[in-house]
Amino acid sequence: MAAPMDQRIAVPIDDPNADTEWNEILRKHGVIPEKPPSPTPMIEEAILEGRRIAHENRLEGKELDELDALEDEEDEAFLEQYRQKRMQELNKLSKKSIHGSVYPISKPEYSREVTEASNNGPVFVNLTSPLGTNVESRVLSELWKQAAKEYGDIKFCEIRADKAIENYPDRNCPTILVYKNGDIVKQIVTLVTVGGVRMSMLEIDNLLVEVGAVDVKDMRVIKRKRDAEDAKEEQLMGKGIKSGNLRHTTIDSEDDDDWD
After folding, report:
1. Peptide bond into 174 cis (omega under 30)
2. How many CB atoms are closer than 10 A to CB 247?
3. pLDDT tens digit string along 60-83?
4. Distant-in-sequence, close-in-space partners of 96: CB < 8 Å, separation ≥ 6
5. What angle, rounded to 10 degrees, do the helices at 201-210 and 135-150 form?
6. CA distance 209 to 221
7. Considering the entire predicted model, what is its pTM?
8. Distance of CA 253 to the CA centre of its chain
9. What are the pLDDT digits (tens) for 182-230?
10. Are 154 and 124 in contact (CB under 8 A)?
11. What would the DSSP string read from start to end of 218-242?
């Protein structure tokens, strides 16, 4: 029979993490482990840091006219700092904007206009469908035009798929090829993974950022994302108002029925 001191006593513990006097005694004698530190202060610190960064970057992506409209709300020195920053960005983009439109290319030009040209910067190629019934191909061609116009510092090319690659199946059109330093670094076959026929410039922006053609903090990327978020918020608010009006209408109708 074991000595009394050697016998293990079952100590009742309801919640080892609870802040009770009994648990403090048990922790002191090593019966239960020390309570882990609360994550609340770290979470609160992260939230405060996020708010601070959001406040500091609240003017990111705004156009010059939008900055002018904030003169009565923001500190003038702070606004002027952003105006100068925006002017520098616009001047930089203007100097780099050497393209501005989609380059229609032929197969003999492909090596020079795409592969070799990609040594000077990324080149985006749209392999289009030869059939006018391919809706995705038509959607991408329109987005390609808009992207080439907005991102004049990036080269966008377009060629019929069957002219670039013999017997290329139309079911694979459109196909996006991204070249950098003479190699294909990204390939997207049809638009199924980027929104399908609902693909927008937001997906184009994401692609440009992903392959390093533009920075995630590029003013064009930030502005479009912010505008999309604002539009979504307005849409949700509109739905809420409509739902509220419908609810009140229903209640009013029920009240009228009570008087019948």
Report:
1. yes
2. 10
3. 555 546 545 555 555 566 556 666
4. 152, 153
5. 70
6. 9
7. 0.60
8. 44
9. 999 999 999 999 999 999 999 999 999 999 999 998 888 988 898 898 8
10. yes
11. -HHHHHHHHHHHHHHHHHHHHHHHH
